[in-house]
Amino acid sequence: MKRIKIKELLTTTPGGQQVKVQGWVRTFRNNQFIALNDGSTIQNLQAVVGLNSLTEDILKRITTGACVAVLGELIPSQGKGQTVEVKVTQLEILGDSDPEKFPLQPKKHSLEFLREIAHLRGRTNTISAVMRVRHAMAFAVHQFFNERGFNYVHTPIITGSDAEGAGDMFRVTTLHATKPPLDENGHIDHRQDFFGKETNLTVSGQLEGETYAMALGDIYTFGPTFRAENSNTARHLAEFWMIEPEMAFYDINDNMQLATDLLQHLIKYALAHCADDLEFLNKRAQEEDAAKPQEQRNELSLLDRLKFVVENDFQRLTYTEAIDILRNSAPNKKKKFQYLIDQWGADLQSEHERYLVEKHFKKPVILYNYPKEIKSFYMRQNEDGKTVAAMDVLFPGIGEIIGGSQREERYENLAKRIQELNLPEKDLWWYLELRKFGTAPHSGFGLGFERLILFVTGMTNIRDVIPFPRFPKSAEF
Fold first, then answer.
1. Which of 7, 98, 128, 139 is the most buried (most CB within 10 A)?
2. How do residues 9-28 score in pLDDT, each as one tens digit?
3. What is the C-alpha to C-alpha distance for residues 102 and 96, in angstroms, rounded to an integer?
4. Do residues 160 and 427 lie in contact, with contact meaning Cβ atoms separated by under 8 Å?
5. Number of Cβ atoms within 10 Å of the Cβ of 363
6. 189: Cβ–Cβ under 8 A, 6 or more apart, which residues?
7. Measuring CA to CA, which residue among 230, 164, 231 is closest to residue 203?
8. Degrees, nearest 5: CA angle 129-135-141
9. Residue 364: band (very low, low, confident or very high) from pLDDT cuts 50, 70, 90
10. Going by C-beta distance under 8 Å and a sequence separation of 6 or more, which residues neighbour residue 396?
11. How far apart are the first and last CA of the chain?
């Protein structure tokens, strides 16, 4: 008999039909009631064992964490919170689980503890719900771009360029770790390395993405990126996923509109297709909030925050307008901000971004036209000589979720900016050359996938929204 997933069984009209279900035991009560879960839904299926229908040896092996296969009749349930259950006629133990050693006993575990057993944490309600939402969001990303005629381009993981000019990169080399070959000046001779030059793991697929926007029109890349920042925070990972569209013939306004459309599409999809998981995560977030001091609690529940983004137009304002609002705000005047705003040119922090979204406008915000000194070299320089056509999308509870810009398409302007910042022109020759042969106005942005999942699930630590987090001093599993 073919196995049926629990998600499907829970919506099937019971009529005594024979079914086969396989999954992991969450609990086993009174030697009779098995709560079974197969990962297809957050809901468990109750399988009822008839008294004296199984041997004592088998009953002892039905423990939390054990994997079982059940054959039985699908019947209406008499219990609360479920419409169907399976009356067991046959049960096979597929995999034993020693109850003395299995770390996930039926009780509440801290997220810190679960990170130490990342190979098992997917069997908990919280992490399984997050991962199902993550899957749904990945699908919805591809759906959004496919429906709009974008091409999915796979940009390289190993690259010789540093798109952000940040320098915090993981080196890729095959040279001897302690005795690398040296050149005539006593420096490591990368000519003898595998690629014949210095290479690293990518920090962004943007630059390579731009080359294909200049050929295919509208493209996007969605893949892993790497930053070697020594940041031990709840918002940073060393390996994370980025969604990066690049569009020929888009100006900054087109770019802002696409970012708005993408975010609203993703959140509508989550609300429509992840209802059970979001309901569970909403209750979980409310319980977590209740344990915090009043001033640290969210004004809106998780579900209300999601609806807030879908139901509100995004407020657009310039960086200059934002600085004026922040400089004159009560938290700034009363010195409540950790970073006070006293002059134009300040790099905005999360507290400033959240104030604009949550207190001042009470809707998502898109800031644009930032000072060029605090933005990357590839952003289009505005006519005022002070600002660039950059834009950031700000969300409640999280601050910046998207960063992007109209790209600098003018060869002379881009070359001058690269020289001003002392960036290695020899590594960017091909990027500059794009501006020599049929240059065109173009734009793009980056959406950190884990930041999105944090927002959609209400989780507070980025290490809990990726299956196997990588961060300083941790590459376990």
1. 128
2. 999 999 999 999 999 999 99
3. 10
4. yes
5. 17
6. 180, 181, 182, 183
7. 164
8. 135
9. very high
10. 300, 305, 308, 309, 354, 357, 358, 364
11. 35
The partner residues of 27 in beta bridges, in order of sequence, read 35
Query: Which of 416, 347, 346 minimizes the C-alpha distance to 377?
Result: 416
Query: ∠ at Cα 386 (382, 387), nearest 5°?
Result: 50
Which residues 6+ apart lie within 8 Å of 13 measured at CB?
none
Do residues 269 and 136 touch, judged by C-beta distance below 8 A?
yes
Q: Report d(CA 26, CA 28) in Å as an integer.
A: 7
Q: Return the closest-CA partner of residue 15 out of 65, 86, 67, 78.
A: 86
How far apart CA 398 and CA 102 sit, in angstroms, is 35
What are the Cα distances from residue 279, in Å, to 149, 204, 274, 292, 306? 33, 34, 8, 21, 12
pTM score above 0.85: yes
Q: What is the DSSP string of 298-330?
A: -SS-HHHHHHHHHHSPPEEEEHHHHHHHHHTSH
3-class state of residue 6 by DSSP: helix
Residue type, 33: F
Q: So what's the pLDDT on residue 346?
A: 94
Question: One-letter amino acid identity for 155?
Answer: T
Distance CA 123, CA 39 (A): 7
* CB burial string 220-234: b at 16+ within 10 A, e below: bbbbebbbbeeeeee
